[in-house]
Amino acid sequence: xxRLATQSPAFHKRRSSNKADYNKLVQAWFPQxxxxxxxxxxxxxxxxxxxxLPAEGExxxxxxxxxxxxxxxxxxxxxACLAQWGVAxxxxxxxxxxGIAKLALLRxxxxxxxxxxxxxxxxxxxxxxxxxxxxDL
Length: 137
Known about the structure:
globular; single chain
């Protein structure tokens, strides 16, 4: 599936619950993962990369704060929280869900006392709503 096909309005109108279609969409939007740098409010400087989406709502990242600190981080977006937000507003697209997962990861890194303390991030409905407001969704 090429990137232009995923940008067409017809593609977004067809909401498939098929996991293979969902993974193809995510891979089309994020074909080449790249390391990004983030200076957290905690004072740590991280580099992180999106590693994959093994299941819907589960985002895998890898972060490092130095050569010896390589941390696998899983961000779990609770389907019930996303559905609750979708009922009050509108359903989120896969790209918007990724944006929420990424900002939840950055918030967790901001609040971390040390890099090793962040391995799982599970944002609450309140955090998801705040991130959606921040993204103007």
